[in-house]
Amino acid sequence: MTINQKRFNGNSRSTVGTVSDIYASVRLLWSRIGEPFVGYSDAYSFNSPKGMCKTCEGLGYIEDINLDELLDWDKSLNEGAIDFPSFGPDKERGKAYRDSGLFDN
């Protein structure tokens, strides 16, 4: 395997594999000689739907909202059920939800 030398022009999130473009060569190599065969080179890429982790979708972390931290299930909208600064009882966003007519306040 041959890797060309070049100046580093990546950003702070770049890795040796992305800067040197060795990831593409390794993916190609594994797709050709890997046993058992699991797919073409995109099957080894976290940027491809075929190769990315199904749980984190290739990000390496999971973003999730804990509704129990955000909502007080025992309060109504008028009482401040949404525990988030811009949705408080006296805030515009909270007022917009209360006045929408879509919720039982």
TrEMBL record:
What PANTHER family does the database record attribute to this sequence? DRUG RESISTANCE ABC TRANSPORTER, UVRABC SYSTEM PROTEIN A
Location of the protein in the cell: Cytoplasm
Which GO MF term does the entry hold, naming one? ATP binding
State the UniProt keywords alphabetically. Answer: ATP-binding, Cytoplasm, DNA damage, DNA excision, DNA repair, DNA-binding, Excision nuclease, Nucleotide-binding, Repeat
- On the tree of life, the source organism's domain of life is Bacteria
Descriptive protein name: Excinuclease ABC subunit UvrA
Gene Ontology biological process terms from the UniProt entry: DNA repair
Q: Name one GO cellular component term.
A: cytoplasm
